[in-house]
Amino acid sequence: MADSMAPQMAQAAPGDVPGTTKRDFLMLTTAAFAAVGVGGIVWPFVSSMAPARDVLALASTEVDISPIAAGQSVTVMWRGKPVFVRNRTEEEVREARSVPMSELKDPATDESRVKRDNWLVVVGVCTHLGCVPLGQKPTDAKGDYNGWFCPCHGSHYDTSARIRRGPAPSNLLVPDYAFTSDTMIRIG
Amino acid sequence: MAIGLHDSEVKNPVLRWVDQRLPVITMLQKEYGTFPTPRNFNYFWNFGALAVITLVIMILTGVFLSMNYTAHTTLAFESVERIMRDVNYGWLMRYVHMNGASMFFIVVFIHIYRGMYYGSYKAPRELLWMLGVVIFLLMMATAFLGYVLPWGQMSFWGATVITNLFSAFPLIGPEIVTWLWGGFSVDNPTLNRFFSLHYLLPFVITGVVFLHVAALHVTGSNNPLGIEPKGPQDTLPFHPYYTIKDSVGMVAYFALFALLVFFMPNYLGHPDNYIPANPLVTPAHIVPEWYFLPFYAILRAVPDKLGGVLLMFGSILIWFALPWLDTSKVRSMRFRPIARIFFFLWVISFFVLMYVGGKPAEQPYVIIAQVATAYYFLWFLVILPLLGKYERTLPLPESIAAAVLGPRASTGGGPLPGAATAKPMEKA
Amino acid sequence: MKLLKVLAVTVAVAMSSPVLAAGEAPAPPNARFGFNSFFGSFDRGAQQRGFQVYKEVCAACHGMRLLSYRNLLDLGLSEPAVRAIAAGYTVQDGPNDEGQMFERPARLSDRFRSPFPNEQAARAGNNGALPPDLSVIVKARHDGANYVRALLTGYVEPPPGVTLADGMHYNEYFPGHQIAMPNVLNDGQVEFADGTRATVDQMARDVTTFLAWAAEPETEQRKQMGVKILIFLAILGGLVYATKRKMWAEVKH
């Protein structure tokens, strides 16, 4: 029975009666307010997917570097990724600094990549497609430039962890870090 | 409808292109724009819309909560507390979800009482009503499953007690309970399946809600007078009249919701649920959530285990038969002076049961529960059928318009006198 | 309308009867904590003193495993101060390269160190009783803040005729009155840095404030947001209702 009446019904609200403009203004204001309300509701949902406070609390990590002898490396976990901390030999530093900029795919001086000459701190994730390069253990392949070698697609990194050959587009990333003392660094 | 593109009336070319191929805009316009709705709704007709919006709120907050919840007995309690402490606005989502369950039941109880008072379950709306009862049963199951997830003391012991209800069934009872648990007690497998089902059921509810609304749009809505609209003078287009009226109710509802969430978030909860589940210690006083209390009281009112379980399930299942138990030709209790009194007594018995359900199982609460339970069933099984036969009802108005506009408009489906009040109808 | 009134009354009756805690203990007196009020916020001084009471007295038996040292920054303590507090505890970490677990000073991101490694050890060290974790104790008791304060100050001589079980103590507000925890607060037990006199009542109030914050650290943010939202809804409600009135003005109903 209700269906039979449907075609006869008005399209929408009754129009040209006195007070229409006032009503339109009121409706617009109300709609604007409601829209603000909906926007306010969306934010907590979006925000809840950002890192939580306990995740942020682990966003920095401290590393005691006193046990790392020259020529040794350690891998530490930082924000779910490996970070390579290497105490370079003088030979390695000399090697890194003698390379002319023109030979580099992603030119950067070794001095700009370290805070203290012998300590190199880089994120151990290949800039090609995210594999972890070899070169941390003494027995690992270190690639043609005596640094790191990514086994996935054959990227070679030098002793400053700069890309020298292979598909990776840029050098291994240097994270934010600081020496809190002579034997401690804080990453992040 | 003939095969081929839909004959759309939409002006905008892009929307028209869509509407010709999938006439959703025509459908929305028909069902929520021009849909002829009785002009005499009171604010009790807000509660269907409020229930829908609550369902949306529950699903949204639930989906986001599940991103941080861990369904494992060793981690569930802590993961909920991590949501409360560390996740951005996690406390807000959890308190909205937790109190949203209570708000959902408040809304749905009022929606049900409204349907009962105004006879909305009567022909031709029987199936509409029965789908509503199905939604209510699914809601109860979902709420129960959800209450187990934080894995506090009440979660654990609530799950234990409710699943043990099934052990009342003869012969296969114990096997059913073991199967429900997936073990020999409520434990990790139980928690995992409860989480899975708690996530699933709201979408089943959404499906049944669609059917409920589809059925509503076949018969059209009932109204406070309980008489069908006879012509356009009895109805108003749903939009803007009822969209705006529903909005008024919605803002008031949100204010009440906000009061609960922001200022007394744990008022309706039980403090014991902030004690991690311990299978070796039962809390001194186990009570279900408040919305289960009337049914819990019926369970405890019967001294026999199986009898109590059957009566408890029966107290809701009997709602399915309501359209046939009530034999009166008159829908709205506005015109049923005797039934109205007995109905209010039934509502009171419901709240009495809710009250004693939260009290310890001792005198005088047991006897009160028994009296209230007896009346609960008496109303459905004896009073309603008899009243249909013997009650003398008040005269019904000729039409909705006649009752609203006064006797002048009582000319049936014909054109109305040119009163300003009838303007919207004339434009139709 | 009549139906509405009946409903409102019945709902009010049903809701105004919260389930009482079991036992015959009297309801704790209302201590009028500021954080329980409508706009309530925590008294930073009381929170810091309360933490000191927890640290020097309660922590001997009670853990707070849901809290991390970084949470103490919310009490208004400076970062170096909180780092120093954390460094005063050792936590287990590892395994190291040799496969050994090792102890190291706690950091901000570490959870509070619990006094006992597990429940059995806690019971063994406490005459069979388990000191509950205090992380959410205020949420986990009916009328939590008032109850905790009343309990801490509720140690009295047992009334005549009551015989205490071995190792039990009499407390007015504990359900059943016999509690395994002894009276731990005595006047002057801790020395507050801000010069506040450490009376039993003062310490009980302060530690309760600290525990209430620990149970619901979101309280201040929640209430401030709630006030804003209620104001917003009041304005929106007025607008929506005015719009509704205007729209329905031409329709008799």
TrEMBL record, chain A:
Enzymatic class: translocase
Pfam families: Rieske (PF00355), UCR_Fe-S_N (PF10399)
Organism superkingdom: Bacteria
Co-factor note (free text): Binds 1 [2Fe-2S] cluster per subunit.
Bilayer disposition of the protein: Single-pass membrane protein
Further remarks about this protein from its record: The Rieske protein is a high potential 2Fe-2S protein.
Record's function text: Component of the ubiquinol-cytochrome c reductase complex (complex III or cytochrome b-c1 complex), which is a respiratory chain that generates an electrochemical potential coupled to ATP synthesis.
Protein name per its UniProtKB record: Ubiquinol-cytochrome c reductase iron-sulfur subunit
Record organism: Sabulicella glaciei
Lineage: Bacteria, Pseudomonadati, Pseudomonadota, Alphaproteobacteria, Acetobacterales
Gene name of the record: petA
TrEMBL record, chain B:
Required co-factors: heme b
Keywords associated with the record: Electron transport, Heme, Iron, Membrane, Metal-binding, Respiratory chain, Transmembrane, Transmembrane helix, Transport
Subunit details: The main subunits of complex b-c1 are: cytochrome b, cytochrome c1 and the Rieske protein.
Species this chain originates from: Sabulicella glaciei
Cofactor binding summary note: Binds 2 heme groups non-covalently.
Cytochrome b/b6 N-terminal region profile domain segment(s): 14-225
Protein name: Cytochrome b
Cellular localization per UniProt: Membrane
Topology relative to the membrane: Multi-pass membrane protein
Role description: Component of the ubiquinol-cytochrome c reductase complex (complex III or cytochrome b-c1 complex), which is a respiratory chain that generates an electrochemical potential coupled to ATP synthesis.
Family: Belongs to the cytochrome b family.
From TrEMBL, chain C:
Keyword tags: Electron transport, Heme, Iron, Membrane, Metal-binding, Respiratory chain, Signal, Transmembrane, Transmembrane helix, Transport
Membrane-spanning residues: 225-243
Leader peptide range in chain numbering: 1-21
Pfam families reported in the protein's UniProt record: Cytochrom_C1
Annotated Cytochrome c domain residues: 45-215
Gene3D superfamilies: Cytochrome c-like domain (1.10.760.10), Cytochrome c1, transmembrane anchor, C-terminal (1.20.5.100)
Subcellular location as annotated: Membrane
Main location: membrane
Family listed: Belongs to the cytochrome c family.
Protein name: Cytochrome c1
Lineage, top ranks: Bacteria, Pseudomonadati, Pseudomonadota, Alphaproteobacteria, Acetobacterales
